[in-house]
Amino acid sequence: MALLKEKDWREMFRLRRTIVRAEQALSEIDRSILPKGLCESDLSILERLERKGARPVNGLARQVGLTSGSMTSAVQRLRRRGLVETRRDLEDKRVVWVSATPEAEKIVESFSQLRGEVLEEVFRKWSERERSVLINLLRRVRKDAGETRGATV
């Protein structure tokens, strides 16, 4: 593995900071339009359930990046609000499945519409080509980071 010069390392760190700051800016937009009483992780859970259907709690936790304890709290909170339903697996009673309610689906649809309108404004000045290039580059970052993480673990 070739060693980078200090200038090259600084450039890599600058690139990393830029990606993080872009994500923070987009997350701030999401937070500003979140439905009352929901946090980002709640919405991530509901979006995943709406897109993929019922999921086991432990698998859902991995998919949205939460610990099992955080997921348990989130599911309980969402169940109290009537946004998810839970049921035990018929074959393995240790497994708990969670699914979105029709009310949650309406919330996700409404949020997605609003988020789409806001993102349309954010990227209004970008050409289709620029958006496509960004998507491909960020996918490559994700893929290469995953491969690097796998090689270092």
Question: Would you write up a description of this structure?
Answer:
- Strand 2 and strand 3 (96-100) form a beta hairpin.
- The chain is 71% helix and 8% strand.
- The chain has a domain at 29-122: Arc Repressor Mutant, subunit A.
- The longest helix has 28 residues, at 6-33.
- The protein has helices at 6-33, 40-52, 57-64, 68-80, 102-122, 128-152, and strands spanning 55-56, 84-88, 96-100.
- It is mainly alpha-helical and 153 residues long.
- It has 6 helices and 3 strands, in the order ααβααββαα.
- Helix 2 (40-52) crosses helix 3 (57-64) and helix 3 (57-64) crosses helix 4 (68-80).
- The protein is globular and about 55 Å long.
- The chain has a 3-stranded antiparallel beta sheet.
CATH superfamily of the domain at 29-122: Winged helix-like DNA-binding domain superfamily/Winged helix DNA-binding domain
- Name the CATH architecture of the domain at 29-122: Orthogonal Bundle
**In percent, how much strand structure appears in the residues?**
5-15%
CATH topology name of the domain at 29-122, in short, is Arc Repressor Mutant, subunit A
Largest β-sheet summary: 3 strands, antiparallel
N- to C-terminal distance: 17 Å
- Could you estimate the helical fraction of the residues in percent? over 70%
Structural class: mainly alpha
Mean pLDDT: 92
C-alpha Rg, in Å? 19 Å
| Net shape | globular
Order of H and E elements: HHEHHEEHH
* H/I helix tally: 6
pLDDT < 50 stretches: none
- Count of DSSP E strands? 3
- What's the CATH class of the domain at 29-122, please? Mainly Alpha
Give, in spatial order, the strands making up the sheet with the most strands: 1-3-2
